[in-house]
Each structure stands twice: as structure tokens, then as C-alpha cells.
Design a protein that fits this description.
four-stranded mixed sheet; 16 strands; globular
Length: 272
């Protein structure tokens, strides 16, 4: 009886696609290099393809006929987002010094990692979802929708009203939270590699949290209890969703424990 929209990560896949397209471009200079936006769209397409087929097969095993569709999703970002001044997301393969210099000459950012270099891009906050009306229409038609894969393809609105892609990535947790808000969802479920959000993680006094209010979450954030680039964005997204409207709940739990989490048997619930 639930309306379901699914988002997903794409970090390993988009990195692989970006690397493959760059390697192809090196040996075939007559071809244009694929920008990050195209790599992101390609990852949305093939991950969505796998997900929708697997979900459809599981539904049919249960005797449920419900169409599943993937929407290649663009998400607008602010041109003046401070993240563009401090790119942090590492992508692509390890580069040598000459290749790193070539990337910088193109206007891209690189960072030294071990004996080589890696390209880094900004991770601006999502503002609007371009295809939100299409997602709503499919939901209204009774479909399960896969959207905002990898946070969505980041774009900016130009003066003529058209959209232009930017070399960046959007954090999947923030992209999913925005999607949940715009669809007026009751629950945002973030499935990850741990059963519960914990404080004092990997320490003798580690403690899993069953319930978390936004006020408690802010306190733990100030104490740096949640790792950046790992649990922190998940908690931040969960808090934003819980605060966005009365009655909304976010759940963070282990992928394999999703059913138990939804039934309230495990996981961490963030609510007012």
C-alpha cells in the first residue's frame, strides 16, 4: 500500500565510467571527452536498469504487477555555492604529474594522493529537481520510481531558462532528502552499512542510537561524533527531513535490515 521512490549511490560506477571515457579519449583524440554530467547520466541509466529489472522480478514472484521506471534526473545547484571554491569529492583514476597538469590546464582541480594525483570536484547542495513533475506523474500512475541516482546530475539555470551542466557531484543523501520533501513523503529511509547510528563509533564505549531528535543530533555533530563523508551527511539529511514538516520521520539502518527497520525493530529513527 506504500508509494515507493528509490534513489541510490553511484560513486564507484561514475568513477569507473569517467576513467573509461578518459582512457578512450587518450587513444582516440578525435573523440570528445565525456564531461562529468554525461558520466553521471550513464551511471543513472545502467544502475536504474539493473534495479528496475531486479525489483520487477521480485514483485512478480509475489504476484504483484507494478511497473518500475527509472528517470534520468537533473538537479539544480547554486552557481555561488561555496562548495565550488573548495572541491572535495575525489573521482577517476590516479594521474601522473603530466596528466594532473593537463587537467589543471582544462580548469579542473586535482589533489596529491600518495605517489600520484586525483581529480576532485565540488559537492554543492541541491536546490530543485528538474524532472520532479515527471516523477510525480509516474507515482500517481501507481509506478515505483527510481530517481535522483547519485544525487542527480548537477545543473545551473541559464539566463535563457535552459539548463547547463556543471563539473560537480551532489551528495546522494541530500539529493534523496530533497526528493522526499518535494514528494511530501512520510518517511525517508537511508540504507547503509551499519544497523544503527552510533556515538563513540569503533570505541569501547560505542553506543547505538534507537531514537534521535534534531536537537540531540546537532549536539552530537558539534562533538564530531559522525564521520565526514560517511555518517555525517546521512544524519544531516535525516535531520533536515525530520524538521521540514511535522510528522515526518527519517530512518537510518542496515540495507539487509530494511524490513525490520520499517517495522520499528531496529535502526535509528530521527524525528521531532
Amino acid at each position: 500500500g506504500a508509494e515507493v521512490v528509490i534513489s541510490h549511490s553511484n560513486a564507484p560506477q561514475v568513477g569507473m565510467i569517467h576513467m573509461a571515457m578518459n582512457e578512450f579519449g587518450k587513444y582516440h583524440p578525435d573523440y570528445t571527452y565525456a564531461p562529468m554530467s554525461v558520466c553521471s547520466a550513464m551511471s543513472q541509466g545502467y544502475i536504474g536498469y539493473d534495479l528496475q529489472n531486479a525489483i520487477r522480478a521480485e514483485l512478480m514472484k509475489e504476484g504483484i504487477y507494478k511497473p518500475v521506471s527509472t528517470i534520468l534526473t537533473q538537479v539544480t545547484v547554486d552557481t555561488y555555492d561555496e562548495a565550488f571554491a573548495e572541491p572535495v569529492k575525489v573521482i577517476g583514476r590516479v594521474l601522473n604529474e603530466q596528466e594532473a597538469e593537463e587537467e589543471e590546464n582544462k580548469g579542473n582541480y586535482v589533489t596529491k594522493i600518495g605517489d600520484g594525483y586525483r581529480r576532485i570536484v565540488a559537492a554543492p547542495k541541491p536546490q530543485k529537481i528538474v524532472e520532479i513533475d515527471a516523477i510525480r506523474a509516474l507515482l500517481d500512475a501507481g509506478q515505483i520510481v527510481i530517481a535522483c541516482g547519485g544525487g542527480g546530475v548537477p545543473v545551473v539555470r541559464k539566463g535563457d531558462g535552459d539548463y547547463e551542466s556543471v563539473p560537480a557531484v551532489i551528495d546522494k543523501d541530500f539529493g534523496s532528502e530533497l526528493l522526499a520533501e518535494l514528494l511530501d513523503a512520510d518517511m525517508l529511509i537511508i540504507l547503509t552499512a551499519v544497523e544503527k547510528v552510533a556515538i563513540n563509533y569503533n570505541k569501547p564505549d560505542q553506543k547505538g542510537l534507537d531514537d534521535l531528535t534534531p536537537a540531540e543530533a546537532y549536539k552530537y555533530m558539534e562533538e564530531n561524533q559522525f564521520a565526514k563523508g560517511s555518517m555525517l551527511p546521512k544524519v544531516q539529511a535525516a535531520v533536515k527531513f525530520a524538521e521540514s514538516k511535522a510528522g515526518r520521520t527519517a530512518l537510518i539502518t542496515l540495507l539487509e535490515k530494511a524490513k525490520d527497520g520499517i517495522e520499528g525493530k531496529t535502526g535509528t529513527r530521527i524525528h521531532q
